[in-house]
């Protein structure tokens, strides 16, 4: 799913609107570069635990 989101060529932005139609602001945690770095590091570590020969393919 995430690769579909990352490679989607459409013009969808992923921005959510509030009840007044205004774009919602992300939380302070989401805007924190250190948090983003941590999420990336933890995600890479998790993905590294998946054996390549058992990963599903689209064949």
From TrEMBL:
Domain of life according to the entry: Bacteria
Annotated region described as Disordered, given as residue ranges: 1-26
Protein name: Uncharacterized protein
Natural source organism: Actinoallomurus iriomotensis
């Amino acid at each position: 799913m995430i690769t579909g989101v990352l490679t989607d060529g459409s013009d969808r932005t992923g921005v959510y609107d509030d009840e007044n139609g205004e774009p919602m602001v992300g939380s302070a945690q989401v805007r924190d570069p250190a948090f983003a770095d941590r999420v990336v590091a933890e995600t890479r570590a998790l993905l590294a635990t998946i054996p390549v020969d058992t990963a599903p393919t689209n064949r």
